[in-house]
């Protein structure tokens, strides 16, 4: 989904319901062009349904206009609250069928997207300190789109639907219906519960809690049989946030595995997807390529051919600079990170009275990330020299590099320490084994560096099989 | 990850961080007491501490500055690891990136700790000890953490043993932040159980999987299963 942080023009508050209706219809028109997934409903039926609950279900999945006024954003929040209140707090489960298979995903996706844009917008108003009128409205309503209420909705949907228990039963090859309970056995609750888990992954990531984000997916197995895989946008979103969280936890091999999986999948299915849907995916696609570039710079590895080609095409120059390291690489890391990171938010209302106190959360997370980049920036240089020798004197190498021996000792330690990385093998996403990822190893005996390189035997069978598959597929 | 899920974690804490109780503002007190316990008993539960930071993130009125700095110092002792960064990500942006006109005690303390942590992560151990000595504020920030310096020293020694077979005594002296060669030899032989060479200039570290730097060759593993698709296709094509 594309993202706009634009300043919405303040619209006169208008309670006239016809106007509202028209705005909704206009929204919907845009939505049809945007997604084209709900062709079967024409505008007339939509308008007729707007009062009915089915209509409200459909509405909840519709994107809000980019230019929506603050008033509309507040209204939208109230709509979600009343809808979720109805679904969660009616007496017993409500007897409703989701309008479509995609619906539950669309609702959760839109709900979080609006929370995200609202928080970013609010922070921006506070930071710029120019629009006093809107600042006052926002100051007076600190709980609208509040973090606690968003988390509350997601957790409640998960609990009501017993989705965690259902997924656990499915993993044991048992019938999930036996543990689903009165709510979870209904499609509406099961789907909302399921996608709320993915919604939580996203919210935790937006708030900078990357390990909790990954922990949230403990019950979901990431494979093509997973429920989310049937909804392309959900599939895509899941892998983006999981990959990003891995990257922030310095688990670059796992991050690359996630991004690669989804990018290969997208490239294989792009011919089947409707154009409009594909457009919205293209942007995220490029973002993930940028993240792969960062991860590969930290952890050089062989990529899938398709991705390698796409990466070289899209970010060839940048990748080269990252791989070379040194201070020149720092701005490139910053550029790619800013381009590809989620639109981080702060969970609490900003300080409207002191605009200068409101640092953009993106800058905050970037600055933390850049510490690790700076720590590692000499590793490419060190490695490129070490590859040339089997033994080398530290002082001599320091002379080549024009640095003090103490400095080089630190670089050698850093590089050696970073070759150990946690990598997932089985179980929850946070699990993993500590493995040696580098193909270059060394040990110091005083000032003598002993270097050994791991030789990769040629992978002939793999090559043979891949080409055979390609020829006869 | 170091210090992520220690065995010492009691049942009560496990229930808090794995359930919805982690969002209950009252849980902060329990987690604060648990942090205190970690500080006194020299173990580290960064996972539980992040749950506490999360509560602070959502309820800024509950923030206690010294708890935040203690969590950061605790996370720092796990170097090299992402623990310190993961904790930083949970601080509010204004706490960790001081604005031009806002310098609170907490922002200043966080900035100071970030410098220390960067030196540990960057293996600039001599510089780390110098920084630690350069300002009284560091003594204040680390005073609650029992055995802070010793923990760091042992960790550095451990990392050195993963990269060195022999290391000069003067290098080690600077890295361990010790006063003289005698103290280094004492630490090396008593705490680490390493040996000192006959001339007394180098410390000898026993061989371990990490300081060997052995040559390895990764060969391709071929199994019949890999050909299953090809064979099936040939079989089906035949039929």
TrEMBL record, chain A:
<keyword id="KW-0648">Protein biosynthesis</keyword>
<feature type="domain" description="PCI">
    <location>
        <begin position="254"/>
        <end position="458"/>
    </location>
</feature>
<feature type="transmembrane region" description="Helical">
    <location>
        <begin position="192"/>
        <end position="214"/>
    </location>
</feature>
<keyword id="KW-0812">Transmembrane</keyword>
<feature type="transmembrane region" description="Helical">
    <location>
        <begin position="226"/>
        <end position="249"/>
    </location>
</feature>
<comment type="similarity">
    <text>Belongs to the eIF-3 subunit L family.</text>
</comment>
<dbReference type="Pfam" id="PF10255">
    <property type="entry name" value="Paf67"/>
</dbReference>
<keyword id="KW-0396">Initiation factor</keyword>
<comment type="subunit">
    <text>Component of the eukaryotic translation initiation factor 3 (eIF-3) complex.</text>
</comment>
<keyword id="KW-0963">Cytoplasm</keyword>
<dbReference type="InterPro" id="IPR000717">
    <property type="entry name" value="PCI_dom"/>
</dbReference>
<comment type="function">
    <text>Component of the eukaryotic translation initiation factor 3 (eIF-3) complex, which is involved in protein synthesis of a specialized repertoire of mRNAs and, together with other initiation factors, stimulates binding of mRNA and methionyl-tRNAi to the 40S ribosome. The eIF-3 complex specifically targets and initiates translation of a subset of mRNAs involved in cell proliferation.</text>
</comment>
<dbReference type="InterPro" id="IPR019382">
    <property type="entry name" value="eIF3l"/>
</dbReference>
<protein>
    <recommendedName>
        <fullName>Eukaryotic translation initiation factor 3 subunit L</fullName>
    </recommendedName>
</protein>
<keyword id="KW-1133">Transmembrane helix</keyword>
<keyword id="KW-0472">Membrane</keyword>
UniProtKB/TrEMBL annotation, chain B:
<dbReference type="InterPro" id="IPR036390">
    <property type="entry name" value="WH_DNA-bd_sf"/>
</dbReference>
<comment type="subunit">
    <text>Component of the eukaryotic translation initiation factor 3 (eIF-3) complex.</text>
</comment>
<keyword id="KW-0396">Initiation factor</keyword>
<comment type="function">
    <text>Component of the eukaryotic translation initiation factor 3 (eIF-3) complex, which is involved in protein synthesis of a specialized repertoire of mRNAs and, together with other initiation factors, stimulates binding of mRNA and methionyl-tRNAi to the 40S ribosome. The eIF-3 complex specifically targets and initiates translation of a subset of mRNAs involved in cell proliferation.</text>
</comment>
<protein>
    <recommendedName>
        <fullName>Eukaryotic translation initiation factor 3 subunit K</fullName>
    </recommendedName>
</protein>
<dbReference type="InterPro" id="IPR036388">
    <property type="entry name" value="WH-like_DNA-bd_sf"/>
</dbReference>
<dbReference type="InterPro" id="IPR009374">
    <property type="entry name" value="eIF3k"/>
</dbReference>
<keyword id="KW-0648">Protein biosynthesis</keyword>
<dbReference type="InterPro" id="IPR000717">
    <property type="entry name" value="PCI_dom"/>
</dbReference>
<keyword id="KW-0963">Cytoplasm</keyword>
<dbReference type="Pfam" id="PF10075">
    <property type="entry name" value="CSN8_PSD8_EIF3K"/>
</dbReference>
<dbReference type="InterPro" id="IPR016020">
    <property type="entry name" value="Transl_init_fac_sub12_N_euk"/>
</dbReference>
<dbReference type="InterPro" id="IPR033464">
    <property type="entry name" value="CSN8_PSD8_EIF3K"/>
</dbReference>
<dbReference type="InterPro" id="IPR016024">
    <property type="entry name" value="ARM-type_fold"/>
</dbReference>
<feature type="domain" description="PCI">
    <location>
        <begin position="44"/>
        <end position="221"/>
    </location>
</feature>
<comment type="similarity">
    <text>Belongs to the eIF-3 subunit K family.</text>
</comment>
């Amino acid at each position: 989904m594309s993202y706009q942080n634009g300043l919405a023009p303040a619209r006169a508050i208008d309670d006239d319901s016809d106007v509202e209706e028209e705005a909704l219809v206009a929204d919907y028109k845009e939505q049809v062009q945007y997604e084209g997934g709900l062709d079967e409903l024409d505008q007339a039926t939509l308008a007729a349904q707007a009062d009915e609950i089915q209509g409200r279900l459909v509405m909840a999945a519709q994107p809000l206009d980019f230019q929506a006024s603050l008033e509309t954003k507040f209204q939208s929040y109230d709509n979600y609250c009343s809808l979720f209140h109805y679904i969660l707090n009616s007496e017993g489960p409500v007897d409703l069928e989701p309008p479509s298979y995609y619906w539950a995903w669309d609702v959760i996706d839109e709900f979080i997207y609006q929370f995200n844009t609202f928080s970013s917008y609010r922070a921006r108003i506070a930071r710029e300190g120019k629009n006093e009128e809107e600042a006052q409205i926002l100051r007076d309503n600190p709980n609208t789109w509040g973090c606690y209420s968003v988390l509350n909705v997601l957790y409640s949907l998960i609990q009501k639907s017993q989705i965690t228990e259902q997924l656990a039963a499915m993993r044991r090859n048992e019938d999930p219906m036996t543990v689903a309970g009165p709510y979870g056995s209904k499609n509406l609750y099961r789907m909302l519960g399921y996608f709320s888990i993915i919604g939580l992954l996203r919210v935790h990531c937006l708030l900078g809690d990357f390990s909790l984000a990954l922990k949230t997916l403990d019950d979901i197995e990431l494979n093509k049989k997973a429920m989310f895989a049937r909804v392309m946008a959900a599939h895509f979103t899941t892998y983006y946030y999981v990959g990003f969280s891995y990257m922030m936890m310095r688990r670059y091999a796992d991050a690359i595995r996630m991004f690669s999986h989804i990018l290969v999948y997208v490239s294989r299915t792009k011919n089947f997807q409707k154009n409009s849907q594909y457009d919205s995916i293209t942007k995220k696609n490029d973002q993930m390529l940028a993240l792969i570039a960062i991860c590969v710079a930290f952890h050089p590895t062989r990529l899938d051919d398709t991705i390698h080609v796409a990466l070289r095409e899209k970010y060839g120059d940048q990748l080269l600079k990252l791989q070379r390291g040194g201070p020149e690489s720092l701005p490139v890391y910053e550029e790619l990170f800013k381009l590809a990171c989620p639109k981080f938010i702060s969970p609490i209302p900003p300080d409207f009275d002191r605009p200068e106190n409101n640092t953009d959360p993106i800058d905050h997370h970037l600055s933390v990330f850049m510490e690790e980049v700076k720590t590692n920036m000499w590793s490419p240089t060190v490695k490129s020299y070490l590859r040339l020798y089997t033994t080398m004197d530290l002082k001599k190498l320091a002379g080549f590099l024009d640095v003090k021996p103490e400095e080089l000792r630190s670089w050698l330690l850093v590089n050696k320490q970073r070759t150990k990385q946690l990598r997932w093998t089985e179980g929850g996403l946070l699990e993993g084994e500590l493995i040696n990822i580098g193909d270059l190893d060394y040990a110091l005996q005083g000032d003598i560096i002993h270097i050994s390189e791991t030789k990769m035997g040629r992978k002939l069978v793999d090559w043979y099989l891949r080409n055979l598959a390609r020829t006869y597929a | 990850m170091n210090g992520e899920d220690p065995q010492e974690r009691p049942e009560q804490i496990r229930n808090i961080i794995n359930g919805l109780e982690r969002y209950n503002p009252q849980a902060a007190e329990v987690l604060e007491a648990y942090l205190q316990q970690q500080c006194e008993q020299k173990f580290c539960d960064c996972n539980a501490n992040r749950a506490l930071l999360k509560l602070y993130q959502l309820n800024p009125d509950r923030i206690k500055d010294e708890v935040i700095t203690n969590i950061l110092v605790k996370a720092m002792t796990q170097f090299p690891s992402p623990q310190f960064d993961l904790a930083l990500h949970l601080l509010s942006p204004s706490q960790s990136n001081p604005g031009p006109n806002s310098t609170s005690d907490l922002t200043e303390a966080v900035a100071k700790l970030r410098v220390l942590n960067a030196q540990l992560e960057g293996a600039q151990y001599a510089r780390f000890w110098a920084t630690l000595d350069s300002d009284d504020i560091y003594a204040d920030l680390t005073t609650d953490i029992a055995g802070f310096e010793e923990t760091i020293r042992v960790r550095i020694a451990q990392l050195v043993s993963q990269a060195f077979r022999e290391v000069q005594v003067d290098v080690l002296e600077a890295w361990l932040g010790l006063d003289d060669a005698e103290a280094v030899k004492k630490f090396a032989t008593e705490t680490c159980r390493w040996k000192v060479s006959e001339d007394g200039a180098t410390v000898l570290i026993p061989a371990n999987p990490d300081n060997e730097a052995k040559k390895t060759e990764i060969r391709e593993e071929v199994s019949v299963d890999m050909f299953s698709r090809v064979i099936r296709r040939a079989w089906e094509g035949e039929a």
